[in-house]
Amino acid sequence: MTPAHPTSLTEQRAPFASFRAIGALILREISTTYGRSPGGYIWAVLEPAAGIALLTLIFSIGFRAPPLGTSFALYYAAGILPLMMYMDLSNKLAQTVQFSRALLSYPRVTFLDALIARLVLNVLTQLVVHALVLGFIVVVLHPTTTLNYAIMGQAYLLTFALATGIGTLNSFLTLAYPVWQTAWSILNRPLFIVSCIFFNFESIPQPYSGYLWYNPLVHIVGLMRDGYYPYYQPTYVSILYPVGLAALTLMTGLFLLNRYHRDILDR
Fold it and tell me: Where are the domains of the chain?
């Protein structure tokens, strides 16, 4: 009966140990991912801002007005910002186990701690980046629109969910099959074209629009534009589709990581 007491104490302390592990991993992520100087965070802001500025410059030369509204910068921000957020979060999560490989040998650090730490840090970073970029567009360029923050919040939640699910599954696939990281990056290259960044979904004729519908980012971008433009009503958007895909990939990734990640790391 004596050993039962220390075991129960350990179990009671486990959640607090997990919080400490996540906090330590977040600090490590800040140091290694963005560096000890503000330069890393400056680049995180400049990358989407430069993409929006370049598209605005190119398309404003060839067209009088964007497909929605009068501001090219606002229109392309509605597409580029969620796309880059999804790609950044999913890619960072996909590399989590490999990145924290040495730390996972400690019994107090689990793969779930590493995933949560990387997700929390990068979600907060992306939200700050989006606030800065969108705030600049609204304050400086004065686009004629009214932002619906409730709908935008839904689009962000869908982006977080999809990136978490895909990233968690890819974390296992990258660990088990290293060639998958290269294959996935190749498969993702057309996303910039097929995610309705440059055009509205409604302008695509059948049967191609039917194919594009199965890209979950099309629904996220459409929902985000619904939040940017009060008169835009994307009837094609399905919230359940990206949510279901996110839940399926997340549960599959967590199951496979929990079952096999120790065996793969010990090889």
Answer: 4-265
